[in-house]
Structures are given as structure tokens and as C-alpha cells.
């Protein structure tokens, strides 16, 4: 679940279907390790926080806007209940593990962890005041190429950081990319991400995530050159996200078509790669094509995409 503000885009609500499989590869940290005193360099405690409003909720828990009583600083607080459930606990352990080891201006910053007496876990993160890219698309309409180049450079910088540190996000989509009012963009929601150094590529290829943004090899790697890469899969999801912001709708299905499992699987695995409408620049078309190659080996990496001509001028 992204730390979103406001309503989600209703037309895409059916696309946000997740499949979760139990994870056994990551160690489950004892509760004593998941506390603010063992993680945060600040002196923030759960009692210092005042709840202001509910920002969003989903299978992963609820996210609230909170304020520090003494400093008036604003944060987002993610509350995860019932973490005694193995799958929930495993996803939470993975998310905390990743948040602990990431340090990038393009990744949502985590301030502290708290474990409550009843077993709930709270994750305190920076507050992004403009919600998500999904929110902006709903409220403000489609993005210009110049604005997309500005967004894409930041998201790719975050992905490049993750991938060079052996982390596959596995759920890149507009709702999981958060925005500040100055168009500062950051990647969020690491609940189903994978630390690749602790597992095999094959284990990472299970269909976990949001169906609509899965790469073809996530459904059937044999039809895509027989290989799987969590990093390349993130690039496919990123490409769909950028294209959606440009055309204003999910780009792999025609307007009005039901985004059910069979339709999504056929469109992603067997349909023609989506093409941009007339009026898009050649640089933008080339950029999207580099992201949405069905063969994993032909898809560009985050590092390569950062050098693409489409990103040469990010003013907007």
C-alpha cells in the first residue's frame, strides 16, 4: 500500500489486485530488533505523535498523517496489525530490512519503528504532501513530456540505487511513487520487495505484486527468453507507469475493457507492445520502447535509461 493522500483512481481500482505467497528466505527478526530505539537516531517515541487523518489503507495496513507534538513536524505513520500471521510478518520483516539499509534521496525516508504492546508494528516515514502519481493523474490530468522526464529521472535514480544494492522493488506503479508539492518524487512501499543477495532469481519470479504492472516473464518466463530478472521486471512496470501518466489510462487495454486476470495476462504476454499516440516525440517513443521490450535481455537497465536522450532536458 502506498502512502497516498486522497481518493485512488477509481477506474484503475480493479487493477490493484495482489497475489502474495509466503516467503521463507528472509530471516524473521525478533520483536526487540523492530523498535525505534534500535533503529532511529532521533528521540521520537510513539507517545510523541498526534494522529491527524487517515491517508490510505489496504492489505498491508493503514497509513496516517501524524504530527510530532513538540516540534510540529509532520510524518506518515504506517500501522500493520496481526503481524503474527506468517505472510504478513514476512512481508513486514522484508520491508523493515530494506528501509533500514537504504539511503537515497529518491526513496521515501524512514524515521523510526515502533512495536506496540498488542503486537502491532508502526513505521514512521517522511510525509509526502502531494500524495502519489496516481493521485496527481486523477486530480490534475495527464503529464507533459517535460514533466514526465522530470519524474522519470527521479524514479530511475531510485531504481538504479535499489538495483545496484541488490534490491528488486516488484510493485512499481503510480500509487507507489510519492510526490511533494515541488515535484520531488520518491519510491515507496517495499512490502513485497526482495533483497536479491538473499535469494535466487527463480524464487523472486513468483507472481507477487499487482497483476496489471507485472512484466511478461512474471507470468511465464519461458515465453520471454526463459529468463527472469527482478530488476528488468521493475523497468517494465516503470515503463507502463510513465506511459499511463502520458495517455491518462492503463495503456495495455482499450478504454472500457474489463481488467480481469485473463484480459491482463493475454495483453501482457501475447499482445503487441503499446505504442504512444501521434504527437509524442521520437525520443519519448524510443524511451518507452526501451522499457517495454518483452525479451528481458533487450530491456534497458535503470543506469542505461538515465543516459537516454529523452532525459537530457528535464525542465518543465
Automatic annotation (TrEMBL):
Keywords, alphabetical = ATP-binding, Kinase, Nucleotide-binding, Phosphoprotein, Serine/threonine-protein kinase, Transferase
Which PROSITE patterns does UniProt cross-reference here? PROTEIN_KINASE_ATP (PS00107), PROTEIN_KINASE_DOM (PS50011), PROTEIN_KINASE_ST (PS00108)
Keyword Kinase present in the record's keywords: the answer is yes
Q: Which GO terms describe its biological process?
A: response to other organism; response to stress
EC number in record: 2.7.12.2
Q: Does the keyword Transmembrane helix apply?
A: no
- Quickly give the catalysed reaction: L-threonyl-[protein] + ATP = O-phospho-L-threonyl-[protein] + ADP + H(+); L-seryl-[protein] + ATP = O-phospho-L-seryl-[protein] + ADP + H(+); L-tyrosyl-[protein] + ATP = O-phospho-L-tyrosyl-[protein] + ADP + H(+)
Where is the Protein kinase domain positioned along the sequence? Answer: 49-311
Which PANTHER family has this protein been placed in?
DUAL SPECIFICITY MITOGEN-ACTIVATED PROTEIN KINASE KINASE 5 (PTHR48013:SF9), DUAL SPECIFICITY MITOGEN-ACTIVATED PROTEIN KINASE KINASE 5-RELATED (PTHR48013)
- Give the family per the record: Belongs to the protein kinase superfamily. STE Ser/Thr protein kinase family. MAP kinase kinase subfamily.
User: What is the name listed in the Swiss-Prot or TrEMBL entry for this protein?
Assistant: mitogen-activated protein kinase kinase
Source organism: Malus domestica (Apple)
The root-end lineage is: Eukaryota, Viridiplantae, Streptophyta, Embryophyta, Tracheophyta
Amino acid at each position: 500500500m502506498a502512502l497516498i493522500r486522497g481518493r485512488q483512481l477509481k477506474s484503475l481500482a480493479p487493477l490493484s489486485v495482489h497475489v502474495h505467497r509466503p516467503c521463507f528466505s528472509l530471516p524473521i527478526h525478533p520483536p526487540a530488533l523492530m523498535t525505534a530505539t534500535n533503529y532511529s537516531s532521533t528521540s521520537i517515541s510513539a507517545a510523541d505523535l498526534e494522529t491527524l487523518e487517515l491517508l490510505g489503507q489496504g492489505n498491508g495496513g493503514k497509513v496516517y498523517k501524524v504530527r510530532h507534538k513538540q516540534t510540529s513536524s509532520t510524518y506518515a505513520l504506517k500501522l500493520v496489525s496481526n503481524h503474527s500471521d506468517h505472510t504478513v510478518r514476512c512481508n513486514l520483516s522484508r520491508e523493515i530490512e530494506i528501509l533500514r539499509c537504504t539511503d537515497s534521496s529518491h526513496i521515501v525516508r524512514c524515521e523510526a519503528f515502533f512495536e506496540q504492546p498488542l503486537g502491532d508494528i508502526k513505521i514512521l516515514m517522511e510525509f509526502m504532501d502531494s500524495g502519489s502519481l496516481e493521485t496527481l493523474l486523477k486530480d490534475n490530468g495527464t503529464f507533459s513530456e517535460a514533466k514526465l522526464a522530470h519524474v522519470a529521472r527521479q524514479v530511475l535514480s531510485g531504481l538504479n540505487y535499489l538495483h545496484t544494492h541488490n534490491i528488486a522493488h516488484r510493485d512499481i506503479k503510480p500509487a507507489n511513487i510519492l510526490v511533494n508539492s515541488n515535484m520531488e518524487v520518491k519510491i515507496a512501499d517495499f512490502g513485497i520487495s526482495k533483497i536479491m543477495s538473499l535469494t535466487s532469481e527463480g524464487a523472486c519470479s513468483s507472481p507477487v505484486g499487482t497483476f496489471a504492472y507485472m512484466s511478461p516473464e512474471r507470468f511465464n518466463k519461458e515465453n520471454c527468453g526463459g529468463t527472469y530478472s527482478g530488476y528488468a521486471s521493475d523497468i517494465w512496470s516503470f515503463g507502463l507507469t510513465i506511459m499511463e501518466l502520458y495517455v491518462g489510462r492503463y495503456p495495455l487495454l482499450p478504454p472500457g475493457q474489463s481488467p480481469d486476470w485473463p484480459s491482463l495476462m493475454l495483453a501482457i504476454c501475447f499482445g503487441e507492445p503499446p505504442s504512444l499516440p501521434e504527437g509524442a516525440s521520437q525520443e519519448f517513443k524510443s524511451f518507452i520502447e526501451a522499457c517495454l521490450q518483452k525479451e528481458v535481455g533487450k530491456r534497458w537497465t535503470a543506469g542505461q535509461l538515465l543516459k537516454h536522450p529523452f532525459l537530457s532536458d528535464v525542465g518543465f
